[in-house]
Amino acid sequence: MIWMLISLVRTGIALLMWLAASNAVIGGYTKEEIISYYVVIMFAEWFLMWNPFHPIAEEIRSGYILTMLIKPLNYAKAWFAKEAGFKVTAMGILAIATVFVFSILKILNLWVILIPGWDWLLVIPAIFAGVIISFFTTMSMVILAFWFTEVEYVNFLFWTIFIFLGGLWMPVSFLPGWAKTINMFLPFRYELSFPVEILFHKVGGAELWISLLSAGFWSVALWTLYKFLWKKGVKAYSAFGQ
Amino acid sequence: MKRLLRLFLSTLNYAVKREFEFKFNLLFFLIFNIVWILTSLAGISLVFKEAGTIAGWTRPQAMLLVLVYYITGSVIKALVIPGANQLAELVRTGGFDFYLLKPVDAQLLVSLTKMYPNQLARILIVAFALPWYLGKMGLAVSFGSWMLFLILIILAVTAFYNLYFIIASLSFWLQNIFNLNDLFAEILDVGKRTTDIFTGVAGGAILFVIPVGLIATIPAKVLMGTAGWEILPLLLLSNLILFVISRKFFRFAIRFYSSASS
Q: Does A95 touch chain B (CB under 8 A)?
């Protein structure tokens, strides 16, 4: 519930900021579009960010994970299912939040501008890739706790980069040209920004297909990386008091 | 008062020593914080490059705002949030019993005995950067303005202390206030932007009720010479009201404490 409140505060502030901006076109987005972008990115964050970092880090640190290791189940699958369950449960609260956000926007005489197009079909694979990349990035980072006592800094470093390159703070179109090109080949953009960019028709032509390929590549690469780290980590792991 | 000061200094001494026990941890914290501050400044720079001005604030002014935010925000994170979080945890586990038994006011004891001194390292970094940046902006800040700047930061810290303790006192009724830390961080984070984006009633509330404007906007304006002493009486009054409410609410809430451990 609190994380939803946090997202609402963050989005509300972003809306007020952009309403107070002097330029009419901002990073290729009109004022109306940029406001719509922040509303959509808030909902996208709720759906696409699958990152159970803290509970897993605690399970490994405390040794509780041993009770999971002796069970005949796949640890990643178990957490994926838990996260999926959480997202489904959150739908109820999300419905309330949606009504709230749209009521506020109506009072402010603002509308979320989304114009359907054929490229919207590609949102489905983009969302699928976003969830996979988000989940396995988190899993790959958190299982470093098999070797290190403190892994919070890895998460901190990830978020420092992600809010910039993932489109959470601002659309990735705000980045300078060279950074945008590099970002196309990094995983951050595909966790959150990419499906939203497709919804707003801000990515097209060759860039769209290259981005889709890149998203596919990172989905497989991070899943493989997780499997490799897991195999090594379980062997290296020792817990006290168990 | 003397006894409380001694208690505070002893706790600070202990917390600093504990921090230095884990030197690599501290080193990583410092490195990541420098990266974080630079990232924030780069983000502001990119946003303002596209937006022009926001609520009349230019890019250099917004960057000054971020530097001021890191001073006030770090003091709050070092001294206020740990105590408020600790209260929620103590009430949940029943550890609050031991605080009630001591011959010191329980609220003060909870507030004084938990702090994160590593945040103070961030203040040191920014304290060096701030005068340099002001010089770069061509601003000459008078002694009086520096004094007012300090007073405003103290007022921001006390206001947030009172506000957070009101929220943390809810733990006497609620079983577990999950993610409280994240919510605190988010409220603080609002102060990183200019609160001039709020107008009318919201503009007043953001200064006097939930005083996010005190974190950076007003102190930054003082350094830029666009705000002065005239704002102080009202801020003192709102701070006093917030203190009375927080204190009374804590005293009221404590009546509902039923120990979990006995």
A: no
Does ipTM come in above 0.90? no
Does the distance separating the beta carbons of B35 and A27 come in below 8 Å?
no
d(CA A77, CA A105) in angstroms, rounded, equals 39
Among B36, B189, B197, beta carbon nearest to A20: B197
| Residue A93 forms contact with B (CB below 8 Å) | no
Whether pLDDT at B217 is above 70: yes
Interatomic CA distance for residues B260 and B179, integer angstroms? 21
- Both tokens of residue A69? 């290791």
To the nearest whole angstrom, how far is the Cα of A99 from the nearest Cα of chain B?
22
Question: Mean pLDDT across the stretch A54-83?
Answer: 88
Per-residue three-class SS string for A92-143: HHHHHHHHHHHHHHHHCCCCCCCCCCHHHHHHHHHHHHHHHHHHHHHHHHHH
Closest residue, chain B, to A31 (C-alpha): B51
Residue B20, CA distances (Å) to B24, B25, B32, B118, B193 in order: 9, 9, 17, 9, 33
Scan for tokens 């994380």, then name that residue.
A3
Question: A170–B183: do the CB atoms touch at under 8 Å?
Answer: no
CA–CA separation, B152 and B261 (whole Å): 41
- Among A4-8, B42-46, B216-220, B242-246, name the one with the lowest average pLDDT: A4-8
Look-up of token digits 């003060």:
B108
B162 with B243: CB under 8 angstroms? yes
Residue A35: CB atoms within 10 A of its CB come to 24
Find where tokens 């690599």 sit: B24
Nearest Cβ partner for B54 among A5, A21, A170: A21
State the number of CA atoms in the 13 A half-sphere of A195 facing the CB: 22
Q: What is the mean predicted confidence (pLDDT) over A120-130?
A: 93
A112: left (phi over 0), alpha (psi -120 to 50) or beta: beta
How confident is the model at residue B177, as a pLDDT?
Answer: 66
- pLDDT tens for residues A80-109? 999 998 888 877 777 777 777 777 777 777
Q: What is the pTM of this model?
A: 0.83
Q: What is the mean pLDDT of residues B52-79?
A: 91
First CA to last CA distance, chain B: 32
What is the token pair recorded at B119?
């945040």
> Which among A60, A50, A229, A230 is positioned nearest to A150, based on CA atoms?
A60
Residue A70 has a CB neighbour count (10 Å cut-off) of 6
Q: Is there a contact between B198 and A16 if contact means CB atoms under 8 Å apart? A: yes
Residue B262 has pLDDT above 60, yes or no: no
User: Dmax over Cα atoms in chain B, in whole Å?
Assistant: 63
pLDDT above 70 for A242: no
pLDDT for res A210 = 94
